[in-house]
Amino acid sequence: MKCIVVITGLIRDVVELFGVLREVQKLREQGLVKRVILSSWLLEADGNTDLFSKLRACGIEVLLTEAVREPIGSDANRAFSYQAVSFLRALDEIEPGAFVLKVRTDKFAQFIPRFSETIKKGLPRVDHKDPRKIKLKR
User: Which pTM value belongs to this model?
Assistant: First the structure.
């Protein structure tokens, strides 16, 4: 079973991003990853043109989206709005029924190896026609 990895977030620390990419690459080498998508915002393009070119050369799809113009509410709500928009943008590019592992650009590398056994065993299917009756199926 292969999954699609979607990486979202601002690139605050390139070293942390490379840590995430290194762990995702290990999953790829095990044959567990079909595609890798980095979804961020256009405002990231200015300082990262070189980085994005290198990522594309490594087979990572880079999607850049217009930032949320005026997110409403607290800082936490703003952060959620930005994350949601970039994640939804990536989902627009993914075929229906695909399995998605969503990770952050930072502070996440150490968690990725935990998913490898789950992916190997077979990811659960989610029947989400009626959200009140979500059932996991193997």
Answer: 0.80
